[in-house]
Design goal:
Layout: H1 7-19, H2 27-36, H3 41-60, H4 69-89, H5 95-102, H6 106-134, H7 136-155, H8 163-176, H9 183-191, H10 197-222, H11 232-260, H12 271-278, H13 284-292, H14 295-325, H15 331-360, H16 363-382, H17 390-404, H18 408-419, H19 424-452, H20 455-475, H21 481-487
Helix pairs in contact: 4-10, 4-11, 6-7, 6-8, 6-19, 7-8, 7-11, 9-10, 9-19, 10-15, 10-18, 14-15, 14-18, 14-19, 14-20, 15-17, 16-17, 16-18, 16-20, 18-19, 19-20
């Protein structure tokens, strides 16, 4: 036969190649249809041998369609993430004002930040399961609805005796973040081509950082401090204004998500997603087991938690640190602006790291470098408050933020690489759970050290945690599994070997 097909067999083979994902034949259906066409088993062997070379060429040159709508989906997520993250630092940055208005302790106000960490830990596994099995859209809808509801509860909590209601609203918003933190890597892998994945993840994390940044600066601008008890009602008016604006924004955003956010593109955007889509579905518990038995991922789980946990502690304790060292009118606003500088510089760091990863795919080298400079930045930050110049604190905070906040998307992408083909949402979700555990520990530990010693010792201990994390990061084996799957899609794209 010399590799040529019977006309009917050729037509059937062409049909099957079109109908099946990726152009591959389903063996059972293929044999049945070819047999019905009068083609023998020997004929099918000849068909297979005669076309093996062409089939290989098709597999290695398959093109995947990417959709412009992916940028709209990403933009919606960025705004949704920002609206939730804003409320994480919204109250803690004006701790000294809330203590007076609601007659609560400093630690009680700190809990408006720590509640984000506490509720995340037990809820992340069911949330990851939902994202993995039901898709992005349902998770984003639930998270956006919860953020909206919590925001409106706080609108009703502006009376001096209504702290409990404000904290309830904060808790609802905190619960909603379980459908945010683990999504950037999964959204990027679902909607974006390989050369844009890391940048898309960085932009997704950018939304969280944007919200934190605005949460540092806007409350201190909108809510003004009052020393005269007869004017405390003005604090309530300012709180109402801040809460109502956030509630309206989250309501509009929720409606936009309902009508505009899509679960996934019509066709896979890259080969890795194509393979996962057409592979046998793995149980969620099996996926968790695979992650927990991956030595590299376990080390990353610990190191990511250390880095982000220290960042959470610094953010929560920032107002107390700045106010204790600088005594002048408007110091609260400066504390907020320093927080803004930390996060804005972190955004720049995140974007730069995302671009570097897309160009080099050097996940471990980039992660290790950024981790080490986070440690260096923390050391410098620790000892600059004693200089008595707020300008120096601004500069060292910018340096710290560039590396420490810039690390966030690196952890997601590194995890996606060494755990493929496990769900990006699950691997990212567990990383964030680790961050919450370390965040609670670092915040409580730092707050205790602040009270019994001073901020230098507290921050030095936090720097020590970053040093341990740097050493553990150096031990992680760079097993880039996702890059191996993507390599066949674009043979011109080099895979880094470290």
């Amino acid at each position: 036969m010399n590799g040529k097909l019977h006309p009917e067999a050729a037509e059937l083979q062409k049909k099957l190649a079109i109908d099946e994902p990726g152009g591959s034949l389903n063996c059972v259906q293929g044999e049945t249809l070819l047999t019905q066409a009068g083609v023998t088993a020997l004929d099918m062997q000849v068909i297979d041998l005669g076309n093996m070379k062409d089939s290989a060429k098709v597999e290695s040159t398959t093109e995947y369609t990417v959709y412009t709508r992916r940028w709209f989906i990403l933009a919606l997520f960025v705004l949704y993430s920002a609206s939730n993250a804003f409320q994480w630092t919204q109250l803690v940055i004006i701790t000294s004002i809330l203590e007076k208005y609601y007659s609560v302790s400093t630690l009680t106000v700190y809990w408006t930040s720590m509640i984000y960490m506490v509720v995340y830990i037990p809820l992340i596994l069911p949330a990851s399961w939902l994202l993995d099995k039901k898709g992005l859209r349902l998770g984003v809808l639930l998270g956006s609805a919860g953020t909206c509801i919590g925001s409106w509860l706080k609108v009703l909590a502006t009376g001096p005796d209504q702290w409990w209601l404000a904290f309830l609203g904060q808790t609802v918003v905190a619960v909603s973040q379980i459908f945010i933190l683990g999504i950037p890597a999964q959204l990027a892998a679902t909607w974006f081509p390989p050369h844009q994945m890391s940048s898309a993840t960085s932009i997704g994390v950018f939304g969280n950082q944007l919200g934190i940044a605005l949460g540092f600066v806007l409350p201190a601008v909108v809510v003004h401090d009052q020393d005269d008890p007869e004017k405390f009602h003005l604090i309530g008016d300012d709180l109402f204004l801040m809460f109502i604006v956030v509630a309206i924004f989250t309501s509009v955003l929720f409606l936009t998500i309902v009508f505009g956010f899509k679960d996934q593109p019509p066709t896979p955007s890259n080969r890795a997603q194509d393979i996962k889509k057409n592979s046998a579905e793995e149980s969620y518990l099996t996926s968790i087991k695979n992650l927990c038995t991956n030595p590299g991922y376990i080390l990353l789980l610990i190191t990511y938690g250390m880095n982000v946990g220290v960042f959470y502690a610094i953010s929560t304790l920032l107002n107390t640190t700045v106010v204790s060292h600088f005594k002048y009118e408007g110091v609260t606003e400066d504390a907020g602006r320093i927080g803004l500088v930390i996060v804005i510089c972190g955004m720049a760091g995140s974007m730069m790291c995302g671009i570097i990863l897309d160009k080099t795919h050097s996940y471990k080298a980039t992660t290790l470098t950024v981790y080490f400079f986070s440690f260096v930045g923390m050391i410098i930050y620790t000892f600059t408050f004693r200089f008595g110049h707020i300008e120096i604190v601004y500069f060292t905070s910018a340096l710290l933020g560039f590396f420490m906040t810039g690390y966030l998307p690196l952890g997601f992408e590194f995890a996606a690489e060494i755990t493929y083909p496990e769900s990006e949402g699950t691997s990212s979700g567990l990383l964030n759970a680790s961050a919450q555990v370390f965040g609670i520990f670092c915040t409580m530990f730092g707050e205790w050290l602040y009270r019994v010693t001073d901020d230098r010792i507290a921050n030095s201990c936090l720097a020590g945690i970053l040093l341990v994390g740097t050493v553990l990061t150096a031990v992680i084996k760079p097993d880039y599994r996702r890059q191996k799957a993507l390599k066949k899609e674009d043979n011109l794209t080099p895979v880094s070997k470290e």
